[in-house]
Amino acid sequence: MKNFNVRKIVRGNVSGEAVVLPGSFSFLGDVDMNTSEIISADSPEKGNFIKDKILIYKDTKGSSGGMVVLMTMAKKGIAPKAIATVKPVDYNLAEGAILTKVPFVCEPDGDILNEIKTGDFVYFNSDEGIISVD
Amino acid sequence: MKLTGEEKEMLGGKEGPVVAEAIDYLVQFGEAFGAEKLIDIVYCHYPAEMGIYEGMVEEAVGYSNTGVRVKVPTTSSTLCSDLEKPEITDIPKPLAELQAKIEPAHRRMGILETYTCTPQLLGFIPPFGSYNALVESSAIIYYNSVLGARTNRGGMFTRFSAVTGKYPLMGYLLDENRKGTHLFKVKLPTEMLENYDVWCALGFHIGNIVGSDVPVIDVPIKHVKQEWLLGLGATLATAGSVTLFHIPGVTPEARTIEEAFHGDVPKDYYEVTEKEINVIYKKLTTIENGAEIDFVNLGCPHYNLEQIRYVADKLDGKRVADGVRCWICTNRMTRKQAEYSGFVEKIERAGAKVIADTCPVESHMRISTCKDFGLKTPNVDAMVCNSGKMLRYVGDLIGCKTALTNIDKCIESAITGRFEL
Question: Hey, what CATH topology would domain B285-416 get?
Answer without folding.
Answer: Aconitase; domain 3 (3.30.499)
